[in-house]
Each structure stands twice: as structure tokens, then as C-alpha cells.
């Protein structure tokens, strides 16, 4: 039997949900590793809806679970029903939905609140010593919940290649150790069984982002 891995989504679309390419890469690499993905999302309203052509919020209302079902091809469950028994690992792709729908990081930074359902799931996997994979902005969830953990969101010096590098500094302010890594690399916090990679925190070719996520997924499955 292959490993069973929970994948938690935050909607559908980089600006207000889960980053679609990252989510797809996670699912493809899990399949390649012979693992079974079980997709979950919270049944809550999105913080807001963004027009991805204009990059501007709209007056529309959307539900995180309903939108995430687009990526999961309808094969998805309410996060409230996640039972850690029988699951071997957890992966949360990035996208602004992590910072808007799974937490309030987008508006409050290090003073954010992680949604109770998401925090409960992260703490359950951590307490059971089951591996957790996080990419792009999603490592901020671990930074908030597990002080002192080691993570990467890429580099900590802002430039054209690393437009979101200030995130690393904020994570350090939460008491975490940030480790600079290239987009094709991962960092493994052995003690906490956290595997992180920067993905679209880096302005890189999409195949490099895909490769970095592949390394993250492989390590998560290996640790499971």
C-alpha cells in the first residue's frame, strides 16, 4: 500500500486561493511516488475574490471548499472531517489563499491568526511525528505554530528574483530559523519533520518550481 497523504487546499487561484501549478505539481509528484493524495479544504468563505486578469478584488463571494474542488476534480473532503488516523503525511501548497483563507497573514503578518481547523490539523500531524510538507507562503503557518522550527521560503534578501524575501525576515521575528535555499532545493527540519521549498516565492522558470516541489514531495513520502 502506498502512503496516504493529506493535501490541504485554500481555494483556486494564486491571488485568492491555492496556487494551481503548485497544487497540481504536488498531486503529480505524489502519484509518481505511488502515494495516495486525499484532498481537503475548509468549508468557509474566501476572504475576498480577486479578478485574476485585473489583479483587483471584486464584489463576488466564493467558498474555499467549493473552489478547491476545481483543482481536486471534485474528489475533496471538508477539512473538519480530516482524521489523522490512517494518514501518513500532510502537504499544504502555497498561494495567497494560505495567507487569506487559512490564516490572516496577508493582513496581519507575524501577528496573524491561523484558522482553528488548520492549526488543529498541523498540530495533530506534528504531535504524531508525521511529516509536513510546505511550499511557497505556506511555511508561515508552521512559523506561527511551531516557534524555533527551521524553514525556507527561499532567500531573505529582496531582489528581482526574490520579490517576497521580507517574508523570511518576518518568520525570523517569530523565532524561527530561516535557511536560504534556491528554488530547486528543499530544507528539512529533522526534529520537527518539516520539509519546505520556496516555489513561487521565487521569480523562476516554472519547471524549476516544479522540480523543487518534487524534491519536497519525495522527502515527505520518504519520511512518512
UniProtKB/TrEMBL annotation:
Transmembrane segments: none annotated. SUPFAM superfamilies: Class I glutamine amidotransferase-like (SSF52317). Signal peptide: none annotated. InterPro entries: Class_I_gatase-like (IPR029062). This is GAL3A protein. It comes from Pelecanoides urinatrix. The lineage of its organism: Eukaryota, Metazoa, Chordata, Craniata, Vertebrata.
Amino acid at each position: 500500500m502506498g502512503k496516504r497523504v493529506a493535501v490541504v487546499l485554500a481555494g483556486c487561484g494564486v491571488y485568492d486561493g491555492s496556487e494551481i501549478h503548485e497544487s497540481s505539481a504536488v498531486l503529480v509528484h505524489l502519484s509518481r511516488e505511488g502515494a495516495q493524495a486525499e484532498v481537503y479544504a475548509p468549508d468557509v468563505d474566501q476572504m475576498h475574490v480577486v479578478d485574476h486578469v485585473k489583479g483587483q478584488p471584486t464584489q463576488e463571494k466564493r467558498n474555499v471548499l467549493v473552489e478547491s474542488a476545481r483543482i481536486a476534480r471534485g474528489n475533496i473532503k471538508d477539512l473538519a472531517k480530516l482524521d489523522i488516523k490512517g494518514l501518513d503525511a500532510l502537504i499544504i501548497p502555497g498561494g495567497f489563499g494560505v495567507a487569506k483563507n487559512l490564516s490572516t497573514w496577508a493582513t496581519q503578518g507575524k501577528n496573524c491568526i491561523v484558522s482553528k481547523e488548520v492549526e488543529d490539523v498541523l498540530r495533530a500531524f506534528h504531535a504524531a511525528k508525521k511529516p509536513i510538507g510546505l511550499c511557497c507562503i505556506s511555511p508561515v503557518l508552521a512559523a506561527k505554530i511551531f516557534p524555533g522550527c527551521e524553514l525556507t521560503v527561499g532567500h531573505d534578501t529582496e531582489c528581482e528574483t526574490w520579490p517576497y524575501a521580507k517574508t523570511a525576515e518576518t518568520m525570523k521575528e517569530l523565532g524561527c530559523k530561516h535557511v536560504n535555499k534556491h528554488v530547486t532545493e528543499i530544507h528539512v527540519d529533522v526534529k520537527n519533520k518539516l520539509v519546505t521549498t520556496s516555489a513561487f516565492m521565487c521569480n523562476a522558470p516554472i519547471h524549476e518550481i516544479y522540480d523543487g516541489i518534487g524534491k519536497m514531495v519525495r522527502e515527505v513520502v520518504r519520511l512518512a
